[in-house]
Design a protein that fits this description.
- This protein is mainly beta.
- It has one domain: Roll (SH3 type barrels), CATH 2.30.30.
- A hairpin with a 5-residue loop joins strand 1 and strand 2.
- The longest helix has 6 residues.
- The chain is globular and about 35 Å long.
Length: 77
């Protein structure tokens, strides 16, 4: 699947997808888990690719260029 096809569908993310965090303390982050609950928007747990940090964010943030940019998709690497 192409990068643009994924982006066009919005927040379609799967474990293994990789995103680069914007800003001074950026770095590459890997989607570890996707959370789908009926009462909140989709969220993802990210783990730092070359570190020990982890965070949970709304999946929509991954497609906000001020927060993250896509690097690669787990199934395609």
């Amino acid at each position: 699947m192409s990068l643009f096809g994924r982006r066009a569908r919005g927040i379609d993310v799967t474990p293994g997808d990789i995103f680069r965090k914007a800003g001074t303390y950026g770095g590459d982050w890997v989607v570890e888990r996707v959370f789908d609950y009926p009462d909140i928007p989709r969220h993802v747990r990210l783990v730092e690719r070359q570190g020990a940090r982890a965070m949970t964010v709304a999946a929509s943030m991954l497609f906000d260029p001020e927060c993250f940019s896509p690097v690669g998709y787990g199934a395609e690497e």
